[in-house]
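Ligand: xanthosine-5'-monophosphate. Inputs:
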Amino acid sequence: MGKAVVANFGGQYAHLIARRLREAGLYAVLAQPEELEDVLRRGGVAAVVLSGGPRSVLEEEVEVAPSILDAGVPVLGICYGHQLLAKMLGGRVERGPGEYGDTKVRLLEGDPLLEGLDREEVVWMSHGDYVASPPPGFKVLAVSERGYIAAMRSPDRPIYGVQFHPEVSHTAKGRLIFRNFVEKVVGLAPSQRWDPASQVPGIIDRIRAAVGPGEKVLVAVSGGVDSTVTAVLVARAVGGRAVPIFVNHGLFREGEPEEVLSSLRGLGLDVVYVDASERFLSRLEGIEDCEERRRIVGETFAEVFAEVASRIEGAKWLAQGTLYPDVVESGAVKGADRIKSHHNVAGLPRWLGLKVLEPLRDFYKDEVRAIGRVLGLPEELINRHPFPGPGLAVRVMGRFTREKLEIAKRASRIVEEELRRAGLYDKVWQAFAAVGDDKWVGVKGDARAVGHVVIIRVVQSEDAMTADWPQLDKEILSRISSRLTSEVPGVVMVAYAITQKPPATIEPC
Ligand code: XMP
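Predicted complex:
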């Protein structure tokens, strides 16, 4: 079975579509629309999905070659992709008042794509343009309350359009639609299902084939799942020639460096540990601008890493835990505004003259977790929340001081502990505490005590592109508040952040 190709029209959902297809068992990659024809010509494509996007077919030329519809490969157009299909095949698209959010649709005809759906379903829509008349011969499978075409198909070919977004979790039967598409339209058999865990032997073989005899592979490990899985894969491939290096930048949560070291050593990794916290913290002290802090952390990291690397004879490679979204984004952010310059070790190989290994570059995070499981990583490590490279440096607001860092360290630990105790840790994307310069008057005993305001941020998210905050029980919030104000010196007030992303980002700076 070949792969699915998702033409990325710039919607924020293209990655979600690829993830849903992979979950349904069909390996999927993203491609630029203008590449589609070439990709199909090269072969090995089992399905094409045209994603949603911010554009309008009423205003722009179609940049997809019409021949892609004649290749005999099943096609699914979603939102903009649905309108694009209509336009390419002779239907009519018009601008309307739009449908946004949960929307009722009514099924008119049975079809393999929609098998298992009720006659009426709630789906998630986000569109202004709509397909006013379908291409000649097309069957309308479902309509919305407004009477717009919600799903349609070609009479004689496996070409489908849906106006709604089956990839988002708000469309309750969205996963079922992808499963139907993959199993009933594309015809994937159970034995052909893509399974990230089964890729492990191949990944290990490829690492072994790349690394020459006697060459060593450095791996910068942070205790996060991506770098740990990378290190274990490299160690399985080249044994003792894998050299994991853990740099303590002093910006971890309380107790974390010790935990990271012991869990890495528990996995049989012979980790080189470098405590460079003083060097990082003395350079960060007093710096107000977060981007400047990111730069300092990145640069200091590279410097420390280079010193360690220069002492390791035979070091020729650097293995990084780069994931598929990073690969796509680094190639395709056309004019996108840089909101935050996320620090990773991307600049290192050039500095060090090392060749790069990226064994996880084809995978999404949930797939890396599946790989971690077959490698025998403990569940606790696999489910750890993402932690920013510059660590708590991005959770201190205003001037960077050691006092505020200390508060963020202890407070973040307490927030995590309380979420674990409530059984919520694994249900949220991230949970932490941030601290700035705002002060609040308190009473300690009978005396006036002025102290910091600590902000608790707990978010649910699928990919960190958007995020929402959960309504935590009063009991949990109260416990967090009383522990923070009694156990963390200098804290008088605790606030809970209640703004989604967007407009706010997840980290405070
Ligand atoms: P924002 O704050 O941009 O965060 O909504 C999105 C995700 O990225 C993480 N993050 C970072 N990760 N280096 C990283 O490696 C960084 O500088 C950085 N800043 C934010 C953040 O924790 C969230 O998961």
